[in-house]
Amino acid sequence: MSASTSALEDLPDVENREQQAFVKFFRGLDSPEENTIRLFEREANGSVYYTFHADDASYVAKHVYETTSVIQYWYGDHTTGLPTTKLTNKAAESFLRDLLLNKHMRIEIWKFVQNGWQIIRRASPGNLQDVEDFLFSSTHMTSAPVVLAIKYNVSDDNKLVGVAFADTTIRQLGVSQFIDNELYSNLESLIIQLGVKECLLLAAGGGREEKDVEGHKIRGILERCNVIATERKKSDYDSKHIAQDLNRLLEGDISVEALRKDLIYCMCIIYTYILFA
User: What is the Cβ-side half-sphere exposure of residue 227, based on CA atoms within 13 angstroms?
Assistant: First the structure.
């Protein structure tokens, strides 16, 4: 997508004192998850616009304006200042839809609330709830995005895979566990069949990155299928309270305890999905 630089003429400059305070705040932020774009909502003359900073500013300059001449440097020059670009509200909406639906990226929208900047909306290809009214109120979506939560375990030559997913259009929660082959062909087929947009995986840590050969294979599958991987902490895979959580979600006369015995490996994965959604 591209936008005209002429639209920038109507966007105000931020005063130097405000730039100084923001640059200090921004440089103190923790790094976001991989493939995340942060934008900051601002208002001037009754209109909303957004600013992007650092690497995100360069991304917008390249992919929206197709020129680096739109980059400003807040509270400094090109070596010391904070690279900044701006988008009008209309241009930002189109840009963010493209990020989520086509570029498979995450977004964080920040706004100054009371005495500080706060995240007011988060979204990823598989979780659009925070931005549905903002980005898709006038755009028809043919289907809801599918998120797949995965857990895997290797014992001898057996590769046990457990998955959980939900289809919000037909209000269906699905779970499955199966033995897969060396290439995880069954998992890949399932991802393609469901049209998965995002996958939840246990975060690698404590030196596991190099040793987690199976996780590396699965991430390779996700990359080939254009599915974004979202890491979850170990505590998100705790199934202690899953029975009561499922009883709140499911309708009809369903025996959760029977499901636990039949698909016990999947129970913690359902809990992971519930926390994410």
Answer: 30
pLDDT digits (tens, 9 = 90+) for 21-68: 999 999 999 999 999 999 999 998 888 999 999 999 999 999 999 999
Q: Which part of the chain has CATH 3.40.1170.10? A: 5-135
Per the structure block, which two tokens stand in for 277?
Answer: 């959604």
CATH number of this structure's domain 146-276: 3.30.420.110
What string of DSSP letters covers 79-145? TTSEEEEEEEHHHHHHHHHHHHHTS--EEEEEEEETTEEEEEEEEBTTB-GGGHHHHSTTS--SS--
Dihedral sign, CA of 14, 15, 19, 21?
A: negative
Q: Are 145 and 169 in contact (CB under 8 A)?
A: no
pLDDT in tens, 213-239: 899 999 999 999 999 999 988 877 776
Q: Where in the chain is the domain with CATH 3.30.420.110?
A: 146-276
Structure tokens at 123: 């979204």
What does the DSSP 8-state code read for residue 29?
S
DSSP for 44-82 reads: ETTEEEEEEETHHHHHHIIIIIS-GGG-EEETS-TTTSE
- Cβ atoms 148, 124 nearer than 8 A: no
Hey, which residues does 154 pair with through a beta bridge?
159
What is the fold, at CATH topology level, of the domain defined by 5-135? MutS, DNA mismatch repair protein, domain I (3.40.1170)
> Is the dihedral angle over the CA atoms 70, 76, 77, 83 positive or is it negative?
negative
Beta-bridge partner residues of 52: 85
